[in-house]
Specification:
Helix content is 37%, strand content 26%. By secondary structure, it is of the alpha+beta class.
Length: 429
């Protein structure tokens, strides 16, 4: 098993600061604990007569606990990790509830056996009907956009109902990606000072989609796949896993969990240690943030295969076979502003509908000025910072006026930070 985790690693996997506080509150409730070469476990007193059974597989990492908490890891798992880091978990023989859980995990996470027959392609008639619906919907959208430009942005209605009506037409046309983009436009008008420029940019993006889809038979295959993705076409997991595996030592730079209408999304930023290639993993869970597949924590490195979704600028991927255990990394191949912006420009050139691209900026200092928030490099060049004031002040406070390494998403206008590295520590939000 890997060496006991540090407090930094434990902080990185905690779902929120309150969970760490709660973990300290149960430090004296442990009845027995133990660990072997694979797992650590313990029994912790709760409110009932039966203690909670907690087990952890640190190499995955993965957690299980019989407590009713919907957080993962729960306070009992965090408390057990803290005891392990302090050397307070003795060696022992794993009880049945631990070995049974590990066996079930091994069975559920084993790679699927190769199919005897190739995965069947979608029915051509069904695909053709959808293509015709999408084409008709995009033609209607293009006429709608043309009318609004002809009348002038200041003379047309920008209420939510207006954008909802055309978004509903896109849903009927089976182009949900376009519908989502349209629903966001009313907020642009209401919330942004320079909304005409932003609105024109979004209208141009939608118009380009409509024009490109009319000429879809002439597009290169990767670009067509990118266009279909932005329109809302799904890609089957079997098709993604059939893509060639890309093996690297992937550095886990950030993990973020968000929730909307009880649908939890976990987004993980990875970067290849050797190739410098970016990858984004997306996992979903309904009702609770208990995701089926465990992932390494930020600040760790995993030797693994990734399979990328097809497209002109492949970024989203799924995790394939892992080679060996995870380990912490100590160095970061961060770049300066020029290299990061050049990469964004290349990716945007390959996929003109792409909104953001990850960056890892070295030696930048978060700065609050009269003109707003920025990260400033040693030569004095700056990029605007996106996000709310709370997150930007946290970034500023942790940096303490010193240069740090920042990971985030750049959209051509502002940087949305997702993690910060300084003094061997990682902070995510």
């Amino acid at each position: 098993m890997t060496a006991p985790w540090t407090l930094q690693q434990i902080n990185a996997v905690a779902p929120d600061p309150s969970s760490l506080t709660a973990a300290r509150g149960v430090a004296s409730a442990w009845l027995e604990t133990g660990h072997d070469t694979t797992a650590l476990w313990g029994l912790c007193r709760g409110r009932g007569t039966t203690p909670y059974r907690t087990a952890i597989h640190p190499s995955a990492p993965a957690y299980t606990c019989t407590c009713p908490s919907r957080k993962l890891p729960c306070k009992h798992a965090l408390s057990l990790l803290v005891r392990w880091s302090e050397g307070a978990v003795p060696t022992g023989q794993a009880p049945d509830f631990v070995t049974g859980w590990l066996a079930a995990r091994a069975a559920s996470t084993a790679p699927p056996a190769p199919a005897d027959e190739p995965v069947k392609a979608p029915d051509p008639a069904t695909a053709q009907r959808r293509a015709e619906r999408v084409a008709a919907g995009l033609d209607d959208l293009d006429r709608w956009l043309t009318d609004r430009i002809r009348h002038g942005l200041g003379a047309v209605d920008h209420g939510y109902d207006t954008y909802e009506a055309i978004a509903a037409r896109m849903v009927d046309a089976q182009a949900p990606g376009v519908a989502s983009a349209l629903r966001a436009l009313a907020a642009v008008v209401n919330d942004e000072t320079d909304w005409p420029a932003r609105l024109l940019e979004e209208y141009a993006r939608l118009h380009l989609m409509a024009v490109a889809y009319r000429q879809r038979d002439e597009l290169p295959r990767p670009l067509l796949r990118s266009l279909q993705t932005h329109l809302g076409f799904g890609t089957r997991s079997e098709e993604v896993r059939a893509e060639p595996a890309v093996r690297d030592r992937w550095q886990v730079l950030a993990v973020r969990v968000t929730e909307e209408s009880r649908m939890f999304t976990r987004k993980t930023w990875l970067r290849g240690r050797s190739s410098g290639r970016w990858a984004i993993l997306l996992d979903f869970a309904h009702g609770t943030a208990r995701f089926a597949a465990p992932l390494p924590f930020p600040g760790s490195l995993v030797d693994a295969d990734l399979h990328f979704y097809p497209g002109a600028a492949p970024l989203r991927a799924v995790l394939g076979r892992q080679h060996g255990e995870t380990e912490p990394f100590t160095t970061l191949p961060a770049t300066g502003l020029d290299a990061a912006l050049d990469e964004y420009a290349r990716m945007r050139g390959a996929d003109p509908w792409l909104r953001t691209w990850p960056v890892l900026l070295d030696a930048v200092t978060p700065t609050d000025s009269e003109d707003g928030w920025y990260v400033v490099d040693p030569s004095g060049r700056a990029l605007p910072l996106a996000g709310d004031d709370d997150s930007r002040w946290r970034l500023h406070a942790v940096a303490g006026g010193r240069p740090v390494t920042v990971c985030g998403d750049w959209d051509g206008t502002a940087l949305a930070p997702v993690s910060l590295f300084t003094g061997g520590q990682v902070m995510t939000w």
